[in-house]
Amino acid sequence: MNFDLGQLTQLLDRVPYPISKSQLIQFAQQHGANEQNMGILEHLPDKTFNSSQEVKDTFGGLGKLENLGGPKL
What count of other Cβ atoms lies within 10 Å of the Cβ of residue 17? Predict the structure, then answer.
């Protein structure tokens, strides 16, 4: 499957924040995130996120999205 930045962004904008990593992964599964987006979420640190921007900022700090097949945010 392909990395879909649009799908991931839309998903993050619908999440009820604050949300933990495990709750975010569960939310993504329930809302049809593809396998690659799920893999990216799995790389997030175990913490509570307070906004979609915080999640996106964390992606940028990982610096590994290109290795997962996706662009840097």
Answer: 14
C-alpha to C-alpha distance for 4 and 1, rounded to whole angstroms: 9
* pLDDT tens digits, one per residue of 17-60: 999 999 999 999 999 999 989 999 999 999 999 999 999 888 87
Cα separation, 63 vs 11, in Å, equals 21
Residue with tokens 């995130």: 33
H helices of 4-66, where? Answer: 5-14, 21-30, 35-42, 52-62
Every domain of the chain and the residues it spans: 5-64
